[in-house]
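[Meeting: bench + compute handoff]

Bench side (C.D.) handed over the final construct sequence. Compute side (W.E.) agreed to return the predicted structure before the next meeting so the bench team could plan truncations. Sequence as handed over:
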Amino acid sequence: VQLVASGGGLVQPGGSLRVSCAASGLTFGSSAMSWARQAPGKGLEWVCATYSERSTYCADSMKGRFTISRDNAKNTVYLQMNNLKPEDTAVYYCAISSISDGADVTLFDRWGQGTQVTVSS
């Protein structure tokens, strides 16, 4: 199983960014996928999860700004981030999760390498 995250970068406050995670070596369509992030000096924080194309969830603090989606034909999960704030600066990771894991990142199965998102003027 391999997860490759991409799309991170430097963005100004209020800007938008979409990060992607390409998966291989798994039955992607039946896999639950999550995004988590780690800000400097802080622990891992769950961001969003998708259990199917119509079943998506995000942490309360990110609802309305972050959206997770997936393209099963491309084996790819996306995280669209709008109205970014400096406190969103973090390394963003994709991971294979399950419905029973919920937001507990310690239970997530496999992790990608992460992509850096920096929000700064």
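W.E. noted at the follow-up: The chain has a mean pLDDT of 95. C.D. will use this when planning the next construct.
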